[in-house]
């Protein structure tokens, strides 16, 4: 695959996305072996450069890198020169100087991974592990993988044609929503957006199959295969995007009653971490419909597949 | 020094000779005197006047100085610039504005007429000593908190009224602060896609609408800096129709560039107010042609590399403009076939000089006037490259082909630029 960086879900063609999902399926087999290791990245140094706190994404990348035999270095904003005000350029050039091969970066500024990939500061591969409110392409890959696995048993070469997915919540500030909107469409799915008007930018609504302010109206209209609930951050409430947590929960939260109206087969997805009782109640989070833990598990496989295609040298799985 | 510019084409199309002696225009017509300089094919205009310049001195000399900014101005055809007050210390008192003006005189490449801050420290809380700055040697007549908006309506009303005492003008940076908290670029389809916090047009338009009402109430002069949206043009059109004393400015970059350029996350395109949409660009061009917008002001805003070669949200707002403004004016007014050299002289020289009350700038090319002149070759086309004379490199037009070239700039009867080459002061 002729791909050096993964910055945006739009970097992937349909065929490339399917190839990564197929590879991820093979990688999932590796994680079930007694010795969970491949030599793909042996001798390569991968740096996880995290400017924002993240447990699950960082751990997921780290496990994926280690299963591919990479030498892994974790750099977090806390306890490094980053917190002393060093520029992105200087930090990255430092990592380049110690011969890092891949940088996996989480950064609070939208476009930071793009800036890094297009700079002359670092010549290796860059993987965007979330940039501000812009994109989180590996999350979209693991979500697509989860959908394909649950709906089509990960049949090799299959896409998501005709699958109806609703993304519900803070679309405006969500990198998960942006990347999923792009990737799921690339794979032929129909993406519907559901959010209060304050959190649903018109430009994104236009690129979706449909958009709704009213969750119940959407449930009535749509025959959904999956509903993806986004985490709601309480600082949005303080900035008047919605009045109270209880009103948000009442109007846009997923609860048992709404789940039952959507039908017994609908998949309940959440990128985590969940606010139980706010955007999702415990009944839904723990129901058999929930894919939350599958998503976490599949995240490792999807990230192994991305690393394999971007930086792998030994191609035997 | 005595010389004659031979066969100059004036803005009305007339071809004539212009003789200059001891700083003054001494003859316009057939006769020649002193050294004869062939200017056939060149357009002779009153020297350009920029009402919106950031020279960064005192305080930010790593970005620009009065000297380097004056050099850039001369190369751009300017004979006068108005440095904004957002220096360190802020130009909110007689001491700083006199210092900046004195630095300008020492460099001697352009007239440097400082703008004073409206409020102490640009903090938007207490009026600066506007009267004292006006009575100082710098004779400040334009006041602006540029970079920040005078958002408090009471303070804006008082400032507008107070400067009537000496026929001053308040130049407003129209930006409602609450509507633009954390804003990074124009709010619209591109910002939604890029995940960058939006700067909505209404944040500019609502302040302009309010300020026009306040100018109407007080009978004072309001100048609107860097108008960037079609809706703002509409507000100004309505205000002018009611007879309000409002003038408006557009930057070269808002006449040419759009928010699509943010897609590469290159902070060279990060500017405040932000680059808007193609529809806004069209409305601004029409307004400049029909007179709704009075002038082009560069908002020349130099920044050092560390504030531009970084991630978008960490970067500073602003771009260079002095050395390219005339080319963009030519593109919009002349090469479009929609306007005239007279209009170009009006928006780059005559109107800004009138708003500022500069006696010897923006005057017609006639006997007895101080010789502040710019001569342009409109037929050449140049590719913009990095590395102008500004101390900074945040040049958004690199690689673009722009029409026209300033060949000579004459300031008080002396060449500051001759044959496109900067003349350093002896």
Brief digest:
Chain A is built from 13 helices and nine strands. Chain A has 317 residues and is of the alpha/beta class. In chain B, strands 1, 2, 3, 4, 5, 16, 17, 18 and 19 form a nine-stranded mixed sheet that branches.
Protein model, in words:
The complex is a heterodimer of chains A (317) and B (426). With 317 residues, chain A is of the alpha/beta class. Chain A has 13 helices and 9 strands. Chain A has helices at residues 14-31, 56-67, 88-97, 112-117, 137-152, 175-186, 202-207, 215-221, 234-238, 245-252, 256-262, 282-286, 292-311; strands at residues 45-50, 71-76, 102-107, 125-131, 164-168, 190-194, 210-212, 226-229, 267-269. In chain A, the strands form 2 sheets. Chain A has a 5-stranded parallel sheet with strand order 7-6-5-8-9, sandwiched between helices. A 4-stranded parallel sheet of chain A has the order 2-1-3-4. In chain A, α2 packs across α13 (292-311) and α5 crosses α6 (175-186). The radius of gyration of chain A is 19 Å and the shape is globular. Chain A starts with 13 loop residues before the first helix and ends in a 6-residue tail after the last helix. The model of chain A has no long low-confidence stretch (mean pLDDT 94). The relative contact order of chain B is 0.16. By secondary structure, chain B is α/β, with parallel strands linked by helices. Chain B is globular and about 60 Å long. Helix content of chain B is 27%, strand content 22%. In chain B, the strands form 4 sheets. In chain B, strands 1, 2, 3, 4, 5, 16, 17, 18 and 19 form a 9-stranded mixed sheet that branches. The two termini of chain B are 14 Å apart.
The 3D shape of chain B can be described as: globular
Basic shape of chain A = globular
Strand line-up in the sheet with most strands of chain A? 7-6-5-8-9
- Which percent range describes the beta-strand content of chain A? 5-15%
Provide key terms for this protein.
heterodimer, A: 317 residues, alpha/beta, five-stranded parallel sheet, four-stranded parallel sheet, 13 helices, 9 strands, B: 426 residues, nine-stranded mixed sheet, 10 helices, 27% helix, globular
């Amino acid at each position: 695959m002729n791909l050096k960086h993964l910055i945006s879900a739009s970097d992937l063609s349909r065929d490339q996305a399917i190839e990564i999902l197929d590879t991820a399926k093979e990688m999932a087999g590796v994680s079930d072996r007694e010795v969970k290791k491949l030599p793909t990245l042996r001798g390569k140094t991968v740096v996880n450069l995290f400017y924002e706190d993240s447990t699950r994404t960082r751990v997921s990348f780290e496990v994926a890198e280690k299963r591919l035999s990479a030498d892994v270095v974790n750099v977090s904003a806390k306890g490094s020169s980053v917190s002393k005000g060093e520029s992105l350029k200087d930090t990255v050039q430092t990592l380049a100087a110690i011969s890092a091969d891949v940088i996996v970066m989480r950064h609070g500024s939208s476009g930071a991974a793009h800036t890094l990939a297009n700079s002359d500061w670092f010549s290796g591969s860059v993987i965007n592990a979330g940039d501000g409110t812009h994109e989180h392409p590996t999350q979209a890959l693991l979500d697509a993988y989860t959908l394909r696995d649950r709906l089509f048993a990960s049949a090799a070469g299959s896409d998501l044609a005709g699958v109806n997915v609703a993304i519900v919540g803070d679309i405006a500030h969500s990198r998960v929503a942006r990347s999923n909107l792009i990737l799921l469409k690339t794979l032929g799915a129909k993406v519907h957006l559901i959010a209060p008007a304050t959190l649903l930018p018109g430009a994104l609504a236009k690129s979706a199959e449909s958009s709704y302010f009213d969750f119940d109206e959407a449930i009535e209209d749509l025959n959904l295969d999956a509903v993806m609930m986004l985490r709601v951050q309480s600082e949005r409430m303080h900035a008047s995007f919605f009045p109270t947590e209880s009103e948000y929960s009442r109007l846009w939260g997923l609860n048992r009653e709404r789940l039952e109206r959507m039908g017994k087969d609908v998949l309940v997805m959440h990128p985590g971490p969940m606010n139980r009782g706010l955007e999702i109640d415990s009944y839904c989070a723990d129901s058999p419909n929930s894919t939350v833990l599958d998503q976490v598990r599949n995240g490792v496989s999807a990230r192994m597949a991305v690393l394999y295609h971007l930086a792998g040298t030994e191609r035997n799985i | 020094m005595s010389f004659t510019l031979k066969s100059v084409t004036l803005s009305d199309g007339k071809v004539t000779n212009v003789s200059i002696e001891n700083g003054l225009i001494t003859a316009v017509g057939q006769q020649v005197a002193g050294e004869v300089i062939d200017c056939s094919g060149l357009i002779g205009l009153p020297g350009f006047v920029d009402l919106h310049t950031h020279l960064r001195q005192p305080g930010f000399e790593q970005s620009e100085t009065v000297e380097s900014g004056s050099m850039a101005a001369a190369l751009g055809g300017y004979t006068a610039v108005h440095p904004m007050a957002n220096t360190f210390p802020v130009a909110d008192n007689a001491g700083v504005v006199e210092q900046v003006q004195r630095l300008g005189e020492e460099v001697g490449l352009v007239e440097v007429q400082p703008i004073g801050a409206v409020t102490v420290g640009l903090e938007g809380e207490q009026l600066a000593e506007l009267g004292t700055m006006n009575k100082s040697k710098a004779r400040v007549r334009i006041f602006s908190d540029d970079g920040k908006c005078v958002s408090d309506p009471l303070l804006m009303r008082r400032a507008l009224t107070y400067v009537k005492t000496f026929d001053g003008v308040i130049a407003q940076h129209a930006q409602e602060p609450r509507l633009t908290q954390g804003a990074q670029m124009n709010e619209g389809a591109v910002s939604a896609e890029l995940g960058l916090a939006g700067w909505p047009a209404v944040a500019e338009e609502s302040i302009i609408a309010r300020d026009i009402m306040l100018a109407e109430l007080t009978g004072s002069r309001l100048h609107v800096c860097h108008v960037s949206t079609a809706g703002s043009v509409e507000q100004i059109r309505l205000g002018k129709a009611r007879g309000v004393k409002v003038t408006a400015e557009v930057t070269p970059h808002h006449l040419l560039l759009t928010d699509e350029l943010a897609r590469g996350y290159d902070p060279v395109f990060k500017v405040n107010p932000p680059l808007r949409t193609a529809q806004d660009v069209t409305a601004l061009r029409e307004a400049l042609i029909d007179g709704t917008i009075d002038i082009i002001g560069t908002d020349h805003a130099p920044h050092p590399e560390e504030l531009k070669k970084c991630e978008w949200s960490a970067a500073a707002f602003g771009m260079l403009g002095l050395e390219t403004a005339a080319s963009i004016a030519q593109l919009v007014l002349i090469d479009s076939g929609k306007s005239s050299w007279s209009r170009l002289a009006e928006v780059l020289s005559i109107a800004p000089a009138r708003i500022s009350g500069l006696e010897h700038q923006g005057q017609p090319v006639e006997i007895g006037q101080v010789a502040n002149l710019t001569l342009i070759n409109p037929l050449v086309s140049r590719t913009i490259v990095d590395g102008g004379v500004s101390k900074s490199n945040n040049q958004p037009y690199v690689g673009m082909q722009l029409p026209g070239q300033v060949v000579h700039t004459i300031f008080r009867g002396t060449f500051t630029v001759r044959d496109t080459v900067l003349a350093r002061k002896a």
